[in-house]
């Protein structure tokens, strides 16, 4: 790959971005050597690595890549029989732990329905040496600290050292605290010199303190003397420390030996960990730039969908789509300066280089790039001061080098082709270069200011125009690339909006070739038509999305209604099954009673049989009706003027009943279905078609009439328990309400007051009770409760 092209396309900045995501210096070295591959299969393999890493991170989260150290020197020392320092052993332990955790991480990801064959292959080759990790962590506490638990011998030696230290300190403390000795001391302290305990003595008192001099102060006024009484003790301490050091070296040698035995496996680990660190860095970068895996081809076709320049802030970059190599192999981009032409060129070049390096590209799905043998770019001012070359000469030198080396399997990117010289000659030279590249089958993208190249691309097969959009209203570029439309010169329009006089604008038009004016007008027309087409397209997309949204909502509502319908049908069937079961049970009881009655004789038997027959008929009438659908529902809306005695259908139960109480403020009321009373909401009711004036002719009307004639205005509950009284009283209040009585008396007696208290509590929550009070003199006093009905 051409190194100069990598430099002008700023490939190294992509490498730096990747470098920020690796954790080890070994992987950084690998990243620094990264270069685009020209082998199709290798590129595909590299992209597959990145895909697996990105997908695994998405599934499992943060990758446990801990410290990865360069262990080559450590392993060499272990192989020759030397021993490693504590800090080196900790580096080995950390690296082994990283290998073990990373292996488990990848293996776990593969078990969770993942598909990571490349990563799994690397992970399966990682060696785990938990026993070495544990031995190091057991023996080493820090970079310079060995644990007492490293060996039994070391623990015993250190215990003896501690005891000896205490003995020496106690001996010296007795010496320095002695009144006879204190006058000879510079300070009453114990210190250490050359690894031995000493005391500070004034120089002039040297003869008064027998012992060995180990040091003196910088002024010479203080001598550090080891008293003769502790020389032997210090010797013992020194010997113990030598034993400690020997034991430490033995422990380090032992652990290093374990490492040496597995040095080949650890070397393999280091290579694999470096590679995995590099692969996961690619995955992290892909997620950071919201990139995608581009589709690959080897036929020179490029299609970038909403590509974003990777080195521009993703919050401000304008995405652009660009394609090349199918219907045309040369793309000529025109437009104003600072309009985004150079950025577009670099974006295309960088995305090709990134893809061939195994990196994701910041674009949308559907992006496709070819694997080229080389990418050649001439971008920017490469003027060489040392060679005293002009801008034109510098560019031409680069282009000549490109023309001498390029093949049909290469991509060529040229910025401001032919610039820096006479416009006529520059345009002619540019057309000649583009023609030669086209005839050689080279994929080429070039930018230019020359209008001649716009017309040239229009008439030349295999070439296509493109332009960067410019908003004349705001006098600023939009950075949008328009393929198929040549760039329009906006000099006169911009000058006019900036305030240049109209007569100067017109005078300028006179100097422009008539054909050029017509060409510019055609471009303007194309541009206007394009904007209208885009507006219509956006509106069509908006309407299509709105229709799709409404369709989805409708389908969801249909599904919800179907589920609700099925649920209600299921509930109705369950209720019907329960009613039939209850009916069968009641019929069995009646038959049983009839059999008992059959044993009796005379008129009494006949009376009881008639009662049973009547009871059975009433039960069958009450149970039969809810099992059949009544179609004469008055309306689909809940009834508005509902009265006691109206016939209604309960929708959720699919049963018909009679209203026995008016709706309250929340719309709740009581409906009688046969022998059952049910509390329902008015929204769940539908009025059944029925002539309310003829209600007297119906069964309900007959019942109401009978109740009106037979129900008394008082009920006697004396002698009943509260539970017995509550059932009787509840039925009595229903009958009194249907009979339209306004006031009734409940006789409960005085007694202990328990029955009266229970009845009062019951009346507070009854739906037919408006108010109640205790009786007064002449009404029965405390033994009676007067109830006002609604």
UniProtKB/TrEMBL annotation:
Q: Where is the signal peptide?
A: none
| Coiled-coil residue spans | 523-607
UniProt enzyme class: hydrolase
Could you tell me the Gene Ontology terms of the biological process aspect for this record?
A: mismatch repair; negative regulation of DNA recombination; rescue of stalled ribosome
Protein's UniProt keywords contain Coiled coil: yes
InterPro entries attached to this UniProt entry: DNA_mismatch_repair_MutS_C, DNA_mismatch_repair_MutS_core, DNA_mismatch_repair_MutS_sf, MSSS, MutS, MutS2, P-loop_NTPase, Smr_dom
Entry's Pfam families? MSSS (PF20297), MutS_V (PF00488), Smr (PF01713)
What's the subunit arrangement here? Homodimer. Binds to stalled ribosomes, contacting rRNA.
Family to which the UniProt record says this protein belongs: Belongs to the DNA mismatch repair MutS family. MutS2 subfamily.
This molecule's function is given as: Acts as a ribosome collision sensor, splitting the ribosome into its 2 subunits. Detects stalled/collided 70S ribosomes which it binds and splits by an ATP-hydrolysis driven conformational change. Acts upstream of the ribosome quality control system (RQC), a ribosome-associated complex that mediates the extraction of incompletely synthesized nascent chains from stalled ribosomes and their subsequent degradation. Probably generates substrates for RQC.
Descriptive protein name:
Endonuclease MutS2
Q: Which organism is it from?
A: Caminicella sporogenes DSM 14501
| Record gene name | mutS2
């Amino acid at each position: 790959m051409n190194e100069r092209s990598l430099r002008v396309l700023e490939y190294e900045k992509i490498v730096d971005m990747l470098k920020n995501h690796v954790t080890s210096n070994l992987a950084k070295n690998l990243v620094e050597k990264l270069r685009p591959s020209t082998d199709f299969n290798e590129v595909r393999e590299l992209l597959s690595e990145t895909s697996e890493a990105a997908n695994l991170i998405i599934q499992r989260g943060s990758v446990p890549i801990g410290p990865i150290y360069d262990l080559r020197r450590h392993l060499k020392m272990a192989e020759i029989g030397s021993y490693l320092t504590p800090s080196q052993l900790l580096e080995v332990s950390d690296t082994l732990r990283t290998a073990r955790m990373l292996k488990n991480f990848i293996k776990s990801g593969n078990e969770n329905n993942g598909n990571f064959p490349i990563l799994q292959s690397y992970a399966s080759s990682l060696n785990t040496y938990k026993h070495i990790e544990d031995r190091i962590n057991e023996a080493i506490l820090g970079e310079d600290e060995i644990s007492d638990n490293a060996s039994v011998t070391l623990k015993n030696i250190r215990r003896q050292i501690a005891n000896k230290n205490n003995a020496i300190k106690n001996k010296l403390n007795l010496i320095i605290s002695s009144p006879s000795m204190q006058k000879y001391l510079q300070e009453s302290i114990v210190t250490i010199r050359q690894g031995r305990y000493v005391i500070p003595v004034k120089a002039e008192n040297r003869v008064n303190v027998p012992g060995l001099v180990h040091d003196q102060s910088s002024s010479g006024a203080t001598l550090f003397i080891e008293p003769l009484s502790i020389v032997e003790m210090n010797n013992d301490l020194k010997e113990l420390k030598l034993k400690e050091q020997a034991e430490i070296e033995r422990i380090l040698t032992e652990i290093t030996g374990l490492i040496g035995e597995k040095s080949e496996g650890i070397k393999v680990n280091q290579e694999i960990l470096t590679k995995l660190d590099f692969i996961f860095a690619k995955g992290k970068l892909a997620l950071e730039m919201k990139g995608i895996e581009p589709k690959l081809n080897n036929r020179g076709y490029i299609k970038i969908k909403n590509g974003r320049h990777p080195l521009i802030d993703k919050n401000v970059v304008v995405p652009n789509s660009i394609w090349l190599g199918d219907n045309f192999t040369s793309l000529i981009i025109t437009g104003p300066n600072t309009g985004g032409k150079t950025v577009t060129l670099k974006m295309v070049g960088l995305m090709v280089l990134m893809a061939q390096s195994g990196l994701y590209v910041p674009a949308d799905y559907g992006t496709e790039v070819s694997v080229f043998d080389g990418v050649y770019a001439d971008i920017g001012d490469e003027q060489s001061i040392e060679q005293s070359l002009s801008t034109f000469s510098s560019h031409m030198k680069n282009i000549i080098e490109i023309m001498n080396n390029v093949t049909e399997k290469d991509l060529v990117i040229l910025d401001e082709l032919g610039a820096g010289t006479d416009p006529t000659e520059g345009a002619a030279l540019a057309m000649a270069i583009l023609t030669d590249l086209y005839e050689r089958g080279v994929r080429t993208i070039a930018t230019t200011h020359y209008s001649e190249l716009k017309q040239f691309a229009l008439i030349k097969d295999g070439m296509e125009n493109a332009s960067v959009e410019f908003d004349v209203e705001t006098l600023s570029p939009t950075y949008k690339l328009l393929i198929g439309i040549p760039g329009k010169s906006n000099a006169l329009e911009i000058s006019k909006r900036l305030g240049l006089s109209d007569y100067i604008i017109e005078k300028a038009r006179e100097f422009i070739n008539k054909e050029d004016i017509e060409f510019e007008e055609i471009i303007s027309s194309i541009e206007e038509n394009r904007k209208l087409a885009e507006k219509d397209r956006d509106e069509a997309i908006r309407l299509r999305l709105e229709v799709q949204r409404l369709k989805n909502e409708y389908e969801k509502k249909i599904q919800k209604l179907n589920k609700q319908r099925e649920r209600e049908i299921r509930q109705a069937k369950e209720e019907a099954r329960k009613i039939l079961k209850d009916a069968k049970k009641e019929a069995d009881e009646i038959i049983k009673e009839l059999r008992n009655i059959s044993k009796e004789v005379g008129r009494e038997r006949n009376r009881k049989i008639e009662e049973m027959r009547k009871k059975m008929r009433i039960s069958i009438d009450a149970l039969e009706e809810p099992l059949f659908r009544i179609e004469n529902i008055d309306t689909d809306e809940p009834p508005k003027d509902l009265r006691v005695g109206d016939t209604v259908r309960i929708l959720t139960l699919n049963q018909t009943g009679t209203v026995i109480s008016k709706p309250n403020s929340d719309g709740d009321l009581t409906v009688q279905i046969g022998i059952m009373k049910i509390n329902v909401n008015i929204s769940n009711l539908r009025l059944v078609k029925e002539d309310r004036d003829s209600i007297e002719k119906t069964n309900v009307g007959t019942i109401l009439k009978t109740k009106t004639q037979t129900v008394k205005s008082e009920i006697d509950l004396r002698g009943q328990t509260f539970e017995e009284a509550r059932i009787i009283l509840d039925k009595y209040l229903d009958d009194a309400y249907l009979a339209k009585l306004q006031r009734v008396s409940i006789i409960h007696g005085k007694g202990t007051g328990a029955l009266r208290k229970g009845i009062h509590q019951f009346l507070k929550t009854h739906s037919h009770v408006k108010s109640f009070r205790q009786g007064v003199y002449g009404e029965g006093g405390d033994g009676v409760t007067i109830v006002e009905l609604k």
